[in-house]
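[step 3/7] inverse_fold.run input=structure_tokens len=175
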């Protein structure tokens, strides 16, 4: 992984769940753009809109590296839910692979421990507010005066941004 990236390059963090998000963080300036995972319903189940996910990457032509949460289903997960989760992760990895972007998976345990992020959603959002205070509105719900429609979406955005920040801090991609 190169240590010196072009000035306008981005590091991407992805929370790959259906309520997850894709965060583009610029190491040199701290600029951040976050996109909710694009989904649609088919037969009552959410699926990722692949072309829309792909377009998220089009507006950020200089992507240095992608860090994706390396998640797995748990034994207590229902079969249908585990399959949907695996499908979502596979779609995201397929888009990244199709774009030939360098990608590093990171377990939630690893990045959350390194960034001191608690497991529950509300505390994770609070930690994102501490780590990236200039971007608080991105993961504050509309009900609380922010831009985010739901707590689940707020958590996805906050976690994607912190995964990108983790990638910058732990990979030598500092701005």
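[step 3/7] decode complete -> sequence:
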């Amino acid at each position: 992984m190169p240590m010196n990236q072009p000035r306008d390059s981005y590091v991407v963090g992805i929370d790959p769940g259906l309520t997850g998000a894709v965060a583009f963080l610029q190491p040199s300036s701290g600029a951040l753009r976050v996109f909710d995972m694009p989904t649609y319903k088919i037969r009552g189940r959410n699926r990722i809109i692949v072309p829309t996910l792909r377009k998220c990457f089009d507006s950020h032509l200089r992507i240095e590296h992608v860090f994706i949460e390396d998640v797995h289903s748990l034994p207590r997960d229902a079969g249908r839910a585990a399959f949907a989760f695996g499908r979502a992760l596979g779609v995201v990895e397929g888009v990244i692979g199709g774009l030939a972007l360098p990608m590093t998976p990171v377990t939630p345990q690893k990045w959350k421990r390194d960034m001191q992020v608690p497991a529950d959603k509300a505390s994770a959002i609070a930690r994102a507010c501490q780590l990236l205070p200039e971007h608080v509105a991105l993961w504050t719900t509309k009900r609380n005066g922010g831009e985010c429609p739901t707590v689940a979406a707020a958590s996805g955005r906050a976690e994607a941004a912190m995964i990108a920040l983790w990638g910058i801090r732990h990979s030598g991609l500092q701005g």
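[step 4/7] annotate
The chain has one domain: 10-171.
Residues 10-171 form a domain with the Nucleotidyltransferase; domain 5 fold (CATH 3.30.420.10).
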